[in-house]
TrEMBL record:
<keyword id="KW-0472">Membrane</keyword>
<dbReference type="GO" id="GO:0006629">
    <property type="term" value="P:lipid metabolic process"/>
</dbReference>
<dbReference type="InterPro" id="IPR012171">
    <property type="entry name" value="Fatty_acid_desaturase"/>
</dbReference>
<keyword id="KW-1133">Transmembrane helix</keyword>
<feature type="transmembrane region" description="Helical">
    <location>
        <begin position="261"/>
        <end position="281"/>
    </location>
</feature>
<feature type="domain" description="Fatty acid desaturase">
    <location>
        <begin position="88"/>
        <end position="363"/>
    </location>
</feature>
<dbReference type="InterPro" id="IPR005804">
    <property type="entry name" value="FA_desaturase_dom"/>
</dbReference>
<dbReference type="GO" id="GO:0016491">
    <property type="term" value="F:oxidoreductase activity"/>
</dbReference>
<keyword id="KW-0812">Transmembrane</keyword>
<feature type="transmembrane region" description="Helical">
    <location>
        <begin position="237"/>
        <end position="254"/>
    </location>
</feature>
<dbReference type="Pfam" id="PF00487">
    <property type="entry name" value="FA_desaturase"/>
</dbReference>
<protein>
    <recommendedName>
        <fullName>Fatty acid desaturase domain-containing protein</fullName>
    </recommendedName>
</protein>
Length: 404
């Protein structure tokens, strides 16, 4: 049983009771048909993504010339033509960044063998898809499997590990340095929050890959998915080397493309969508795994089912999230419970899980930007002690409390 926090909570704070079912118990609520994988069906989805990627690129290549022709034939002013171009490129960057993210997600599905029952096929396809999105496949595979096997475990989680503060922090009894006091003062300002979110949404994912940002704080300096000597990855030393060489090959392709087409063309067609990819990955993973209603566990209070249920389903971008992102955010609870279920069966599995799990199923239909802002301000730290802990805001207030 979980231990109750020793720190008092505000009266009226909603109570949380950890689930007692095992993953096998929960599995019985999902029809066996949901676990069936089809390599042909998976390839058709991937080919659809390739087609959209190429079609968007072709449309963008005609955008400037078509805008001029449209302007001349309809009498649009130069300012109007420029406005049409800007709108066209923004639309291209938006949808192409989603398409690139879709490639990354399909590579992620290969890690879980939900793309196909063939381990070799999943390895080859996943390696290619991750490489074109600049994700080092081997190290990412290791880190992601550990994320699933240690989800919401304070000592084993791989990403967005909550910072901790003493139990008496909110009462002002903890000692802080002058520097810490200045930082705490700045944390109260909306501009600071906006700046931190901009950093997270632009370089957060590369920071995680390169420097273990938001990963386990106990990791040594130099931990990186590109470093084969890093403690989490050194048992797959040569696999990490091969992934690094693939990333180096991508760098050479980009360098050659710049020489052939020019720097601005490469930035417009690939660079900006890739920045968008980093934004979507940071946003998706942060909002899937972070929230004041999501528990984190220590010691024997944790088990695989409780960890998997410490995730949130969100109707991310509506139809665009389902089409481009393959249900990764709409059905993330089901994915964490049963990662081998292919994405095209996740909606059906989710409906069965909702009925079985009841209040233990976490769902949020908040607008994305509002949810991002609220989550960041509500989820600043967790208690440094306790078997079941919830995020607290900067004033030390939690929105949930474990009572059993």
């Amino acid at each position: 049983m979980a231990v109750v926090h020793s720190k008092p909570f505000e009266e009226g704070t909603p109570a949380f009771v950890p689930i007692e079912y095992s993953v096998e118990d929960i599995r019985k609520s999902v029809p066996p048909s949901c676990f069936q994988r089809s390599a042909l069906r998976s390839f058709l989805y991937m080919l659809r993504n390739v087609f959209v990627f190429c079609a968007l690129g072709f449309a963008a290549s005609k955008l400037d010339s078509c805008s001029k022709s449209l302007g001349r034939s309809s009498g649009v002013t130069d300012a109007g033509i420029k406005f049409i171009k800007i709108c066209g490129w923004i639309a291209y960057w938006w949808f192409q960044s989603l398409t690139l993210t879709g490639f990354w997600i399909l590579g992620h599905e290969c890690i879980h063998r939900s793309f196909s029952s063939s381990a070799l096929l999943c390895e080859v396809v996943g390696f290619i898809l991750h490489t074109i999105t600049w994700a080092p496949h081997c190290a990412h595979q290791i880190a992601h499997v550990r994320h699933h096997s240690g989800r919401a475990h304070m000592e084993r989680e791989e990403i967005f590990v909550p910072p901790t503060r003493p139990l008496d922090y909110a009462e002002g009894n903890s000692s802080t340095s002058p520097t810490d006091s200045i930082v705490e003062y700045l944390e109260d300002t909306p501009l600071y929050t906006l700046w931190m979110l901009l950093v997270q949404q632009t370089i957060g994912y590369p920071g995680y890959v390169l420097f273990n940002c938001t990963g386990q704080p106990a990791r040594t300096m130099g931990t990186s998915q590109l470093n084969p000597y890093s403690q989490p990855f050194k048992h797959r030393f040569y696999g990490v080397i091969v992934s690094d060489l693939a990333i180096l090959a991508m760098l050479c392709i980009i360098r050659k493309s710049v020489k052939v087409f020019g720097f601005l063309i490469v930035v417009k067609f690939y660079g900006v969508p890739w920045i968008g990819l980093n934004h979507w990955l940071a946003l998706i993973t942060y909002l899937q795994h972070t929230g004041p209603e999501v528990p984190f566990y220590r010691g024997k209070a944790w088990n695989l089912a409780r960890g998997a249920l410490s995730t949130i389903d969100r109707p991310f971008l509506g139809w665009q999230g389902r089409f481009f992102l393959f249900n990764i955010a709409h059905c993330h609870v089901a994915h964490h419970l049963f990662p081998q279920i292919p994405w095209y069966h996740l909606p059906e599995a989710t409906e069965h899980l909702k009925e079985f799990l009841g209040d233990h199923y976490v769902y949020s239909d908040e607008a994305l930007l509002r949810g991002l802002w609220r989550t960041y301000n509500s989820c600043r730290f967790v208690d440094a002690e306790g078997d079941v802990v919830f995020y607290r805001n900067k004033k030390g207030k939690a929105e949930m409390v474990c009572t059993s």
